[in-house]
Write a structure and sequence with these properties.
alpha/beta, Rossmann fold, 27% strand, 6-stranded mixed sheet
Length: 155
């Protein structure tokens, strides 16, 4: 084998070991109050027991969460698909941003999960921080039968 080929294979192997691959980004249609509606998907390598949706703070990017070692390890150990929510909306005094499912964000997420994993989906787990926790609360009240657990942090 040529040295250049060996180097390329070594780099690919290291990238796999270090998990330097990008999760899949799925861009979804926008509802009127949304300025961004993306999800980042990291499917479970085995048969998934559930799907964990990580919801960051106000207008945050969920890819940052699913790339953290603690969530990668948790997803692997518990056999979970990981999804990073990346929704955004303008400031709205009436609280109709993405964090409220009445804005259409709940249905957009369900459509994105169906696109990512098909019609037969494992149970959902949601974790949110700040506005992401508000989204988690709103979503779990809207579709309570879909959830195994939903939790959030307000700091």
């Amino acid at each position: 084998m040529k040295p250049s080929c060996r180097l390329i294979l070594t780099v690919i192997g290291l990238m796999t070991l270090l998990r330097i691959e990008a999760s899949e980004k799925i861009s979804l249609p926008l509802a009127p109050q949304l300025t961004r509606a993306d999800i980042y998907v990291e499917p479970c390598k085995d048969e998934a027991r559930g799907t964990l949706v990580l919801c960051p703070g106000c207008n945050g990017n969920g890819q940052d969460l699913i790339d953290k070692p603690k969530w990668i390890n948790f997803g692997r150990d518990e056999k979970l698909n990981l999804v990073g929510l990346s929704f955004a909306s303008d400031a709205d005094a009436q609280n109709r941003g993405y964090f409220s499912v009445s804005s259409g964000s709940g249905q957009i997420l369900l459509d994105g999960l169906r696109q990512a994993f098909g019609s037969k989906q494992p149970p959902l787990l949601l974790y949110g921080f700040s506005r992401g926790a508000q989204f988690t609360y709103s979503f779990s009240r809207w579709k309570p039968r879909l959830f195994s657990i939903a939790f959030g942090d307000f700091l």
